[in-house]
């Protein structure tokens, strides 16, 4: 059985979408004659914790843990709330940022290069060099963000004759929040230098969307494979659909994802249609920024809103399957066209229609359309959005609101792992 060392930061009990990708790959890799050895921090700073995911770690996986020194641990002494929010990607609105928030963002972008886990690089390289030699490992995979982990792979590649795959769950310098980090010209150049160094030094690169592949092809000639996130077979108790006409957003709801087009449409439908007003409920599940909550209040939707906060992955799946309609939102920016939210695949197998909002030519719009799992709208399609919401509501009244998905099997975690195993074997 081939041994593969996987270097990742997010691992159970971490919650959120970042942990799912490699947890599921590790689950299925032994089926393809690959022994996964997972290297993770022993004392990480996770903004979201889901203890239930510990039960999903497969017995066949070998888990290595080493302590990490993180500046976030020190910064949290000054402001635990702000530090936790920034580390989870919730960037405060630029016009409303406090002096402390501005300072933390400046430090995050200009001192913590490429991110706050950079102090883990050298100790990890020292430990892993010995482990790799003693255990006959010839293939390593690094997963980012945090992109510091790619620097571990870079140094191991330079010092040992190993095959190295760099897996980018999200882009590096083109990710939505990069421009919010108040980068100096030196920091900006340093980020781009490290990004190019990783992309040109890895034996191959794995990305989650075709747009990221196109962006990286302008930087490197190394092989790049698109392996999206996906869905797994989830054993959860079946619940009846919500009695109300629920529109549910599940996952982190960041300030920059604030879809005023949705709030305006809902406000108008509630005003224009008494039956809709009496039946509608907005469900928020996960971390929600204050700006999003303020917008909901400004559009007089608070009486129709239930904010459940963060729930376990299992509970999130239950809500996906019993909500009437699911809301998916991505930032309205050219830089986010490549982002395919991990939850879109779980949404697609929930058998509930998806309302998706994002920038024009978004990669995930193509997936939703091709699988017939919902409707996509740009941030200027308000009248079309209202029409679809109303048509879904009318189907709900007839108890006939459902979707007829096609082509989902290609996104199953096992099939995606087969693709990964084939790429490893032939690269």
From TrEMBL:
<dbReference type="GO" id="GO:0009103">
    <property type="term" value="P:lipopolysaccharide biosynthetic process"/>
</dbReference>
<keyword id="KW-0808">Transferase</keyword>
<protein>
    <submittedName>
        <fullName>Glycosyl transferase family 1</fullName>
    </submittedName>
</protein>
<feature type="domain" description="Glycosyltransferase subfamily 4-like N-terminal">
    <location>
        <begin position="104"/>
        <end position="234"/>
    </location>
</feature>
<dbReference type="Pfam" id="PF13692">
    <property type="entry name" value="Glyco_trans_1_4"/>
</dbReference>
<dbReference type="GO" id="GO:0016757">
    <property type="term" value="F:glycosyltransferase activity"/>
</dbReference>
<dbReference type="InterPro" id="IPR028098">
    <property type="entry name" value="Glyco_trans_4-like_N"/>
</dbReference>
<dbReference type="Pfam" id="PF13439">
    <property type="entry name" value="Glyco_transf_4"/>
</dbReference>
């Amino acid at each position: 059985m081939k041994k593969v060392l996987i270097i990742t930061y997010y691992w159970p009990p971490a919650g959120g979408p970042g942990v799912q990708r490699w947890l599921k790959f590790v689950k299925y890799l032994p089926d393809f004659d690959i022994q996964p050895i997972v290297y993770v921090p022993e004392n990480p700073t996770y903004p979201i914790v889901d203890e239930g995911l510990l039960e999903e770690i497969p017995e066949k996986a070998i888990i290595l843990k080493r302590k990490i020194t993180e500046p976030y641990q020190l910064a949290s002494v000054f402001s635990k709330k702000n530090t936790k929010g920034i580390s989870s990607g919730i960037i405060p609105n630029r016009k409303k940022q406090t002096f402390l928030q501005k300072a933390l963002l400046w430090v995050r972008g200009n001192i913590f290069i490429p991110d706050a886990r950079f102090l883990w690089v050298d100790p990890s390289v020292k430990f892993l060099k010995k482990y790799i030699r003693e255990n006959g490992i010839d293939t390593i995979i690094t997963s980012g963000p945090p992109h510091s982990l790619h620097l571990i792979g870079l140094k191991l590649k330079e010092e040992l004759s190993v095959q190295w795959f760099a897996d980018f769950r999200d882009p590096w310098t083109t990710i939505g929040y990069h421009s919010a980090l108040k980068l100096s010209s030196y920091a900006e150049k340093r980020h781009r230098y490290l990004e190019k160094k990783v992309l040109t030094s890895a034996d191959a690169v794995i990305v989650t969307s075709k747009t990221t592949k196109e962006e990286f092809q302008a930087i490197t000639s190394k092989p790049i494979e698109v392996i999206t996130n996906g869905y797994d077979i989830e054993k959860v108790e079946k619940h009846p659909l919500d009695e109300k006409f629920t529109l549910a957003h599940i996952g982190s709801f960041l300030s920059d994802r604030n879809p005023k087009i949705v709030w305006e449409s809902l406000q108008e439908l509630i005003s224009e249609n008494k039956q809709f007003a009496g039946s509608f409920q907005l469900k928020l599940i996960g971390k929600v920024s204050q700006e999003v909550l303020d917008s909901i209040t400004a559009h007089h939707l608070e009486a129709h809103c239930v904010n459940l906060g963060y729930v376990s992955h299992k509970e999130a799946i239950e809500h996906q399957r019993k909500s009437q309609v699911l809301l998916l939102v991505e930032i309205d920016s050219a830089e986010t066209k490549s982002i395919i939210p991990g939850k879109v695949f779980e949404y697609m197998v929930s058998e509930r229609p998806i309302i998706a909002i994002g920038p024009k030519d978004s990669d995930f719009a193509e997936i939703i359309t091709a699988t017939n799992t919902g409707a996509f709208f740009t941030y200027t399609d308000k009248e079309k959005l209202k029409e679809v919401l109303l048509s879904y509501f009318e189907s709900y009244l007839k108890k006939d609101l459902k979707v007829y998905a096609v082509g989902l099997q290609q996104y199953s975690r096992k099939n995606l792992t087969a693709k990964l195993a084939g790429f490893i074997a032939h690269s």
